Amino acid sequence: MDQRPVEPPASPWQFPDAVNADEHGLVCVGGDLEPGTVLAAYRAGLFPMPVPTGRGRRAQPVLGWFSPDPRALIPLDGLHVSRSLQRVVGRFRITNDVAFEAVMRACGDPSRPHGWITESFVDAYTLLHRLGWAHSVEVWLDDELAGGVYGLAIGGLFAGESMFHRVTNASKVALVGLVERLNAGGFVLFDVQWLTEHLASLGAIEVPRSDYLARARAATDVTTRWS
Length: 227
Known about the structure:
Layout: E1 26-29, H1 35-43, E2 47-51, E3 62-66, E4 71-73, H2 83-89, E5 93-96, H3 100-107, H4 119-130, E6 134-141, E7 144-154, E8 157-165, H5 170-185, E9 189-193, H6 197-201, E10 205-207, H7 209-219
Parallel strand pairs: 8-9
Antiparallel strand pairs: 1-3, 2-3, 4-9, 4-10, 5-6, 6-7, 7-8
């Protein structure tokens, strides 16, 4: 997908400053997942996730907007590719933007623990993909989708959302392919939201929220290409 992203209508919502987040990183709830709203959130250093409310049958998730402190990044010159991973990369075929919705639905498989990708998120990010903002990297083995990763690209910021694998190491191979593409396209910031043990093993680090917000503001003004 090489076209210039289409700027959607502006959001009617105004987000609070990210520094007002609570101890869990939650800044506010409500709003919508319209393209203009989602883009405004990322430009302000926030990202959406459902927030559970209530208990039992009355539990109904609401839309939450997060800006955690600290924030996790993968330095674009610091992805850790082990020797064992280097040996298996060549087994797979790597593509981009070939199967965006399939990647997102695999990431949102309800059988996965801590699943949060609802149908409304699939609809919202698939629309952002059609507008040129959301992208995927797919990993194939014998013409079967083995793994992948997706996220949102705004200027020089790539906000990674989720990844999955059906074959051992396939999600790691997707990250290798993604970082290669980001470097080739002139991206400067790869946001992965929260640090996990898995991401840390691949070179992810944490930075203070204030540091992230400054980097993100600068990154969104960078001219890049996704091709």
